[in-house]
Design brief:
CATH class of the largest domain: Alpha Beta
Structural class: alpha+beta
Largest sheet: 7 strands, antiparallel
Shape: globular
CATH topology of the largest domain: Naphthalene 1,2-dioxygenase Alpha Subunit, Chain A, domain 1
Number of helices: 10
Radius of gyration: 21 Å
Number of domains: 2
Bound molecules: FE2/S2 (inorganic) cluster, fe (ii) ion
Strand order of the largest sheet: 1-10-9-4-3-2-5
CATH superfamily of the largest domain: Naphthalene 1,2-dioxygenase Alpha Subunit, Chain A, domain 1
CATH architecture of the largest domain: Alpha-Beta Complex
Order of helices and strands: HHEEEEEEEEEEHHEHHHEEEEEEHHH
Distance between the termini: 15 Å
Length: 334
Amino acid sequence: MLNLDPRLYVDPAVFGRERDTIFATAWQMLGPAAQVAGRGQYVAADLAGIKVFAIRGRDGVLRAFRNVCRHRGAKLLEDGTGRCATIRCPYHQWVFADDGRLLNAPWFGEEPGFRPEDWPLEEIHAAEWRGLLFVAVDPREDLLAQLGALVEELADEPIETYQAVRSETVSFDANWKIYTDNFVEGYHIPGIHPKFFAAIDFEAFETTAHKGFVRMTAPPREGLFYRGKWLWMWPNWTLSLFAGGMNTSRINPVAPARTEQLYHFYFADLSPERDESRSDTIARNLAVVREDYEICAATHRNYEAGNYRAGPLSPRHEQGVHYFQERVRESLGR
Ligand code: FES
Ligand SMILES: [Fe+2]
């Protein structure tokens, strides 16, 4: 098993290909479905440059669209969450209904061939699974097929009963695949996360690849807030279990050398007395997350400078890296 060719991490042409063959064709996890529980509530997101939003219509139906005006292509909604009755383009004020219909093109003028019903927003796919929201621009398979063996893996974990209390977006200067390579192995824990290392039985750390996901487990020692199980799902989302809840994240490429990670933190017990303990869990969790960014950025710079040729992957610890990279190779047709 050899690491991926470093050029695949830095080439802008590869970045564009990944957008088309991975991010436009695979389901993307956008965090808790509760964000779009109420009528008019929406989530607008960037998927490797593709702008989309999901919205709960006044008819109660969840839909998703490209976040692009049909007139001259302006972006309709700012990224993030919100609520609206109709969607008004900030550019020339066209107004769309929450089911995508063009309602009004003010001051457009008389044009006999122009019919508003010909210019609805371009609809994409939306789905909910166990309390999580997903969208897909041009899916190659249905959501359950993409999730694969994860469905079974999480069958006994009551994830839909946890409620998201906080979201956090972090970004760093490395290709999304360098960060993913890092996420799907525990090999770097002794070097990069000394406190975390001390809090698990590292000798018993296990990494296995399954259809659609990579599982990492380690028996926790006293005082670790994690429950000793970390999951990464193709192509770019994660779910980690911690005491009384979990986090999810989406790893989103912004540029070949820039990645953002959008976290949500969920808990079973939302009582005010547990407020401090929840904040503490989130802070400790984010501290571990941030420990990875510098090493990823430095690795990226080595790849970018042509300073590295692909090296060998550990059979003991890097099965997850291999699984991820094989799927990338397959998607890029290599
Ligand atoms: S681009 Fe939206 S109204 Fe012109
Ligand atoms: Fe790490």
